[in-house]
Structure to design on (560 residues):
């Protein structure tokens, strides 16, 4: 607290002032609020060495306090003190704005308050000048810090908050505002929800899940908690929640919710889709055998040669691939491809092509793998429901092209894939960033490779070990070639701490780790290895690169 307080007053804070500033919990903005409030109350005194709390001037008109009031001032009261200097119109505008979420537009306020934009010009200008509001993204505003919003929010009685939130949501819906904006408003009204938002959520969940899956998941969880089991809407909510939780990789949530939906649904299509989500969530948590049992049980209730029967059958093929039963997976995928083609079902046919591509990959036949992958990509078209399959196959295509030294085409596919992953908010984005770094390394753009790796902060659970192995393996070799011994050792230590597995022993730094003592890192001189699908890239003795399989994923994880 000493440093921010000294910057404000030019002197060190005294013991009593420091004690009062502990309310700020280290936040410099909150320190400023408390100091400003104490200054306005005349409660600060200066001597030659420090600024300290001292006898206050008489309290402002309309208060009964004085020194005792200032002595006991809380952080919330310091915020309220700032707001008390604003005009009544500005405070009214701010209370309404506090109910509109973390950021809001002037249009939102005009709709809710029923006022023209010009009528809000003076209150908004005053709030910005007072440091209460500040510009946000686009043409929106936000509160300078959260506690100001919280104080205003809590100043509105709960019953009135519920009514205002309902009116605001209905106004935004009537104006055909985006589902994301309505969801943002609903999320900010956690204590104001009383069930009125459930109907809107049931009608718009599918769109919201595609555009803002995190927000959809939060709202659906809350709606399910507020809806009784005998409510006819609860199955719809659970159905959407299973989809949303799966999309945001919350598999521990997706599995039990999908199981509840599966126990209630009798309609074949609903059961098929729910079984797919449940089985995929099980597969991504390394429960492949259980995922096969799940789909086989539901398939027994479905008519053969129907879309969902074919889709669940090809899922079983993918699970067999994950278990290393490649021949069984290939035979089942080939059969599904025939059925899916006759049904003109892009989903079953696309996943069949994907599975066949992976079996050829495992057999070290990159040409056939590329052919099946290319045909599968063509099947997905622009169907948003198949965007994850498209990303999966494009990522695998990048890996195969990398093996085949077709680097220009690899770069083109990776650029398209990276863009789609960003637009859809796919959990696969981190993998594509790692692949871009790997490709940059192979083409001699080492600084670009390190820049790509630096953008990776969190690793999806699917690649919690394999991606760090790629990143730190390549970074260690780059550092060693540049004689940056400390950096190389740091990356190698991370690599050493990873659990044992093929992603660790078959990456770029494997021979490097085996041949060189970490206490005296030398420039590596490694020989090339080329074993498609099973090896990792290695440096040639001349410093150029040879490529094994893309080290972004192991063969088995590519199937997911």
């Amino acid at each position: 607290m000493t440093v921010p307080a000294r910057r404000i007053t030019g002197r060190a804070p005294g013991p009593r002032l420091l004690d009062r500033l502990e309310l700020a919990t280290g936040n410099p903005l909150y320190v400023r609020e408390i100091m400003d409030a104490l200054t306005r109350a005349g409660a600060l005194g200066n001597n030659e060495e420090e600024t300290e709390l001292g006898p206050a001037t008489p309290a402002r008109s309309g208060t009964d306090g004085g020194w005792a009031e200032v002595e006991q001032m809380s952080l919330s009261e310091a915020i309220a003190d700032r707001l008390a200097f604003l005009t009544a119109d500005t405070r009214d505008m701010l209370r309404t704005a506090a109910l509109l979420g973390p950021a809001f537009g002037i249009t939102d306020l005009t709709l809710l308050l029923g006022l023209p934009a010009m009528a809000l010009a003076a209150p908004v200008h005053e709030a910005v000048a007072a440091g209460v509001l500040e510009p946000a993204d686009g043409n929106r505003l936000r509160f300078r810090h959260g506690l100001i919003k919280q104080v205003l929010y809590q100043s509105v009685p709960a019953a009135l908050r519920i009514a205002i939130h309902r009116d605001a949501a209905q106004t935004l819906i009537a104006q055909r505002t985006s589902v994301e904006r309505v969801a943002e408003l609903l999320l900010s009204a956690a204590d104001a929800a009383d069930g009125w938002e459930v109907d809107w959520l049931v009608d718009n969940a599918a769109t919201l899940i595609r555009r803002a899956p995190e927000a959809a998941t939060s709202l659906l969880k809350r709606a399910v908690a507020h809806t009784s089991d005998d409510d006819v809407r609860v199955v719809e909510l659970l159905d959407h929640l299973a989809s949303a939780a799966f999309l945001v990789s919350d598999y521990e949530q997706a599995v039990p919710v999908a199981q509840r939906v599966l126990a209630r649904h009798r309609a074949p299509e609903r059961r098929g889709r729910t079984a797919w989500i449940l089985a995929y969530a099980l597969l991504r948590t390394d429960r492949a055998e259980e995922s096969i049992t799940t789909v086989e049980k539901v398939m027994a209730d479905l008519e053969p040669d129907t879309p969902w029967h074919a889709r669940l059958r090809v899922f079983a093929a993918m699970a067999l691939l994950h278990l290393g039963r490649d021949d069984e997976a290939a035979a089942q995928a080939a059969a599904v491809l025939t059925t899916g083609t006759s049904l003109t079902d892009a989903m079953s046919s696309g996943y069949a092509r994907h599975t066949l591509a992976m079996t050829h990959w495992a057999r070290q036949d990159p040409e056939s793998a590329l052919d099946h992958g290319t045909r599968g990509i063509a099947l997905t078209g622009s169907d948003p429901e198949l965007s994850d399959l498209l990303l999966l196959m494009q990522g695998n295509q990048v890996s195969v092209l990398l093996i085949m030294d077709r680097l220009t085409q690899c770069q083109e596919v990776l650029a398209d894939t990276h863009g789609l992953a960003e637009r859809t908010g796919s959990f696969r984005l981190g993998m594509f960033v790692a692949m871009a770094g790997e490709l940059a390394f192979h083409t001699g753009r080492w600084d670009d490779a390190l820049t790509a790796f630096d953008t990776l902060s969190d690793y999806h659970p699917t690649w919690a070990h394999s991606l760090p192995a790629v990143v730190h393996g390549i970074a260690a070799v780059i550092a060693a070639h540049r004689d940056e011994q400390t950096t190389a050792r740091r990356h190698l230590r991370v690599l050493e701490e990873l659990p044992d597995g093929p992603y660790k022993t078959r990456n770029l730094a494997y021979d490097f780790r085996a041949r060189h003592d970490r206490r005296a890192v030398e420039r590596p001189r490694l020989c090339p290895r080329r074993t498609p699908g099973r090896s990792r890239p290695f440096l040639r003795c001349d410093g150029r690169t040879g490529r094994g399989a893309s080290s972004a994923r192991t063969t088995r994880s590519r199937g997911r």
In short: The longest strand covers residues 50-53. Confidence is low (pLDDT under 50) at residues 56-72, 511-558. The first helix runs from residue 2 to 9. The chain has 30 helices and eight strands.
